[in-house]
Specification:
Shape: globular
Largest sheet: 7 strands, parallel
Strand content: 15-25%
Order of helices and strands: EHEHEEHEHEEHEHEHE
Distance between the termini: 13 Å
Strand order of the largest sheet: 1-10-9-6-2-3-5
Number of strands: 10
Bound molecules: 2-phosphoglycolic acid
Oligomer: single chain
Length: about 250
């Protein structure tokens, strides 16, 4: 793993965007595995700026998103499809048909999940997978549990995840209780992974993912078995790494 600790959220976002832009420049028809949430928002702003400046094009890029809430329509302002449209897709030249976000309204989740995995497989897996991380160590919506789930699946959100995401909804009761999430198989099948985190409340999850026991009770810990992971954190999220003896790139 290469680990970068950046001064603050903005510097973390810029570093993330640089990694993503480098992937696109190196391989214009790359497959990006995209994430939503507060963590990548700043990076998407940088990418949109660089696109507007003419430094970057998404015209041959394909994307698959990690997850979506069950029950939210793409037009719901807290759906992850809506997030992707408003933070990235509407502002760059990516071809709409080349973007995939799990369908939170599917009537047949089992078939949908199998087809999502088959699509990722047909692309030869993702070239660069972006990941945020939950305070409980979840990646995508792969919540802590007794085993890693390989396939795309419907997941019951952990109470702590519902608590953490309640800030985006009018009330806690409005937070969906389930999501469709890419499984560990598609994530670990990615050729490169970019794991990012910001804020003190992520410091434990980052420490446990980078050098804790590899266990489904901290899903992010499986990344220790991936051969090509870049970790970008701000100082608060990386605050427990130095004392644990983790070597830092920058
Ligand atoms: P966040 O969420 O980026 O909004 O902090 C990350 C996650 O829960 O995976």
């Amino acid at each position: 793993m290469r680990i970068f600790v950046e001064k603050d959220y903005d510097a973390m976002s810029r570093r993330m965007a640089q990694v993503i832009a480098a992937e696109i420049v190196h391989n214009p028809a790359c497959v990006l595995g995209l994430a939503t949430g507060s963590t990548p928002e700043g990076a998407y702003k940088y990418l949109v700026d660089w696109y507007k400046q003419g430094c970057l094009s998404f015209k041959d890029v394909l994307s698959v998103n990690l997850d979506e809430y069950v029950g939210l329509a793409p037009t719901h302002d807290q759906s992850y499809r809506y997030f992707m449209q408003s933070n990235l897709f509407n502002h760059v030249d990516i071809i709409p048909e080349n973007t995939r976000v799990p369908d939170g309204l599917t009537k047949d989740p089992k078939t949908f999940c199998a087809e999502y995995d088959a699509y990722i497989h047909s692309l030869g897996y993702v070239d660069l997978q972006l990941l945020g991380i939950g305070r409980n160590g979840h990646i995508g919506f792969n919540e802590p549990g007794d085993s890693f789930v390989k396939e795309t699946h419907v997941v019951d959100l952990a109470e702590s995840t519902i608590d953490a995401n309640a800030r985006f909804f009018a009330t806690r009761d409005d937070v969906p209780k389930q999501a469709i999430s890419m499984g560990i198989g598609a994530i670990m099948g990615a050729k490169k992974v970019l794991l990012a985190a910001s804020g003190e409340e992520k410091a434990g999850a980052i420490l446990n993912s980078i050098c804790g026991t590899i266990t489904p009770h901290c899903p992010g810990s499986i990344l220790q078995l991936h051969p090509n992971v870049v970790v970008v954190v701000d100082e608060a999220a990386g605050s427990r790494l130095k004392s644990a003896g983790v070597s830092i790139c920058g």
